[in-house]
Design brief:
With 430 residues, the protein is an alpha/beta fold. The chain has 2 domains: 12-60 and 324-429, Alpha-Beta Complex (Aspartate Aminotransferase, domain 1); 78-320, Aspartate Aminotransferase, domain 2 (3-Layer(aba) Sandwich), CATH 3.40.640. The protein has helices at 12-16, 23-26, 52-55, 64-75, 88-102, 118-133, 150-154, 159-162, 187-196, 224-237, 307-320, 325-346, 367-379, 404-429, and strands at 31-35, 38-41, 46-49, 110-113, 137-141, 172-175, 205-210, 213-214, 220-221, 240-244, 268-271, 284-287, 352-356, 359-363, 382-383, 385-387, 393-396.
């Protein structure tokens, strides 16, 4: 029984919630509880969660240690909201973040607490890059997604999302991501030629902003060589290099940061989603100290720095990043996921796998087929969504903490749906 037909709820969401709602249209039930990688609806049915809040729940739903710390914080009347004032929760988070994340990676970045979403961090990064360089133009990439507010949206490629702006989206030049023109096209060389040609019509950039793996854009994964090349180009041009690690970071597509071991350190790193550890609103911008030229309150927001999120984020760092065990286990799960998805792609004519780490999926070659596969998965107890320019990629974003048996169960559901529907498609085509 869907939420539209359940007695007492008929028409409630359609009557009162904005037409902007989206995920609930694909999953028309009412969820009442969740634990790690399983969500339960109001009828008592369990679903394996391969969406995880679009990588907001890398540590799963309701981690017991984070939950206990948050309850203790609230029960002790500790600070819930403090603008950007000093609080014990903030200092504990900063000390832990410095000790476990920044220092081991030899990163001396300052931490700027922005408004509570990833788009807020992107807006701050774009604004700061323009302030530091005195330039206006920012280079973003085809299929990129950076948020829905006006500045972030200007860097977003998707026509459907850009169409909602209602005003010109300016100040950004979109360049081809690696592989955008086929595997043999050297898009880095093309960019270098554009910037070396004084008649190219492309203004000198304030910054390049890039995702190492494009989450909403279809799980396109850039190579370390291409990314380090873009970083070097930015440095040569006097531009800042921004890595948007909002969806690909915090263990999803590599180490804590998705760019670790690639031979470069970004000037700015945007963070959000799983930064809080358990789905609380929390975003930040990491800034090389020499670029931290903000004047007091020059960029602020009422909800910059969420004290409840400071608490859960600190626990997440201590629990999962004080040694290499979590990262090692995530790599093993990523290898298993890659093998299973290759087997699934093999049963769908023309399909191919994409992504990196635990941020992978299958390009089904058709948005219609991908949508039908996801709908069939939901009917059989799996929450999974699509991405890509034509919604052609079935995307797996399971919690990194998902038990092996639940990961296998979810993939079994996906494999059965892909096999059945691709076979049906083939018969229909004949």
């Amino acid at each position: 029984m869907t939420i539209e037909t359940r007695p007492g709820f008929a028409g409630l969401y359609a009557r009162r919630e904005s037409e902007a709602r989206s995920y609930c249209r694909s999953f028309p039930v009412e969820f009442v509880s969740a634990r790690n990688a399983v969500m339960t609806d109001s009828e008592g049915r369990d679903y394996v969660d391969f969406l995880a809040g679009c990588s907001t729940l890398n540590y799963g739903h309701n981690d017991p240690d984070m939950k206990r710390a948050l309850i203790d914080h609230i029960a002790g009347d500790q600070v819930a909201h403090g603008l950007d004032m000093h609080t014990s929760a903030k200092s504990a988070f900063l000390e832990t973040f410095e000790r476990l994340i920044l220092k081991p990676r030899e990163m001396d970045h300052k931490v700027m607490f922005t408004g509570p979403t990833g788009a807020n961090a992107v807006e701050a990064a774009m604004k700061l890059a323009r302030k530091v360089t005195g330039r206006q133009n920012i280079v973003a990439f085809t299929n990129g997604f950076h948020g829905m507010t006006m500045g972030a949206l200007s860097g977003t490629g998707a026509a459907g999302k850009r169409a909602g702006a209602g005003a010109p989206l300016t100040g950004v030049t979109h360049m081809p991501y690696e592989g955008a023109f086929g595997k043999d096209a050297d898009t880095l060389a093309q960019m270098e030629m554009m910037f070396d040609n004084p008649s190219s019509g492309v203004d000198a950039p304030a910054a390049f902003i890039v995702e190492t793996v494009q989450g909403e854009g279809g799980l396109n994964a850039a190579s370390p060589e291409w990314l380090s090349g873009v970083a070097a180009l930015a440095e040569r041009l006097g531009a800042l290099f921004i890595v948007d690690d909002i969806q690909a970071g915090i263990g999803r597509a590599g180490g804590f940061f998705s760019f670790e071991g690639m031979g470069f350190t970004p000037d700015l790193v945007t963070m959000a989603k799983s930064l809080s550890g358990m789905g609380l609103p929390f975003a930040a911008l990491l800034i090389r100290p020499e670029h931290d030229i903000w004047k007091p309150a020059e960029h602020n927001g009422t909800f910059r720095g969420n004290n409840h999120a400071f608490v859960t984020a600190r626990v997440a760092l201590e629990k999962f990043w004080s040694d290499d065990a979590f990262e090692a286990e995530t790599r093993l799960k990523g290898a298993y996921l890659a093998d299973r998805l290759e087997a699934i792609a093999a049963v769908v004519p023309g399909a191919r796998t994409k992504g990196r780490g635990m941020m992978r999926g299958v390009d089904m070659g058709s948005g219609e087929l991908a949508a039908r596969i996801c709908a069939a998965c939901f009917e059989n107890g799996l929450i999974i969504e699509t991405s890509g320019a034509h919604d052609e990629v079935v995307k797996v974003l399971a919690p990194l903490t998902i038990p092996r048996e639940e990961l296998a169960r979810g993939l079994d559901i996906l494999e059965a749906a892909a096999h059945r529907l691709s076979t049906t498609n083939s018969i229909a085509a004949e």
